[in-house]
Design brief:
alpha+beta, about 25% helix, DUF397 domain-containing protein, DUF397
């Protein structure tokens, strides 16, 4: 199992929406809820993560 180095998103709200992302493992972008660090980790390919970010930017106009 790779050791992910998570960092909190600059868009996270410390009271409610807390997301951490790790990009230190080749070919994997890992995402977790910072309020549940022992919980599940979502894993994406860098291409899928980039597409997700583009979709978010597009929806926020």
């Amino acid at each position: 199992m790779p050791a992910f180095a998570f960092r909190k998103s600059s868009h996270s709200d410390p009271e409610r929406e807390c997301v951490e992302v790790a990009t230190n493992v080749p070919n994997i972008v890992a995402v977790r809820d910072s309020k549940d660090p022992e919980g599940r980790i979502l894993r994406f390919t860098p291409a899928a993560w980039a597409a997700f970010q583009r979709a978010l930017r597009a929806s926020n106009g």
